[in-house]
Amino acid sequence: MRVARNCLVGLLAVVAATGCSSGLSLQEAGAQLAADGKAVMAWDDWVDESINITNTAASDVPCGDGKVKRVFTAVGQLPTLNPDPDNKLDGATRDIGYSFAERGYERDVSGPSQADVLPTRTIVWVKEAAGLRFSFTVSLPSDTRIAAQINGETRCE
User: Fold this and answer.
1) Architecture in CATH for domain 26-154
2) What is the C-alpha to C-alpha distance for residues 137 and 123, in angstroms, rounded to an integer?
3) What global pTM score does this model have?
4) Separation between Cα atoms, residue 61 and residue 69, nearest integer Å
5) What is the pLDDT along the chain (157 residues), one digit of tens a residue?
6) Among 23, 72, 129, 139, which is 20 to 30 Å from 154 by CA?
7) Facing residues of 147 across strands?
8) Could you say which residues form the signal peptide (predicted)?
9) Is 35 helix (H, G, I), strand (E, B) or coil?
């Protein structure tokens, strides 16, 4: 009986220690980053032939002091017929932002405001608990297109 109790106490200690780990492993965080980035890029309003995922967060990228992170990058374009450049960028940042918010990200408002900035805006979304960060930059390459570049990264570990 005493041995069984000691084994149970030892097992509970292992479970408790595991439950207090620092969160997702780098591989898990990279997989979450890729899934979230691909979900944003799968959004219906993108101009299909313009979508290009250039880094899928599948491999380690050095980030100093012997640490590594995972990175997701993609570009795409959205169609627009709105004649007002400010409204074009407002709509794009709002719509792309909704996609990140639906996946549990919160907007990082610690930097300077991007409201009414032309011709390019950069907005940052973070998922603190998972250690994930996305920034997206929208610009106006033509009167009928909005270009978007999405960059995501995990914490350096």
Assistant:
1) 2-Layer Sandwich (3.30)
2) 7
3) 0.80
4) 5
5) 444 444 433 433 333 333 334 588 999 999 999 999 999 988 767 776 778 999 999 999 999 999 999 999 999 998 888 899 999 999 889 989 999 999 999 999 988 777 777 889 999 999 999 999 999 999 999 999 999 999 999 999 9
6) 139
7) 77, 139
8) 1-22
9) helix
The set of residues, in sequence order, having a beta carbon less than 8 Å from that of 103 and lying 6+ positions away, is: 36, 39, 40, 127
With vertex at residue 128, the alpha carbon angle to CA 91 and CA 113, rounded to the nearest 5 degrees, is 40
119: preceding bond cis by omega (within 30 degrees) = yes
Q: Would you call 50 exposed, middle or buried from its count of C-beta atoms within 10 A (0-12, 13-18, 19+)?
A: middle
Contacts of 13 (CB under 8 A, 6+ apart): none
Contact 37, 150 (CB under 8 A): yes
Coil vs helix vs strand at 98: helix
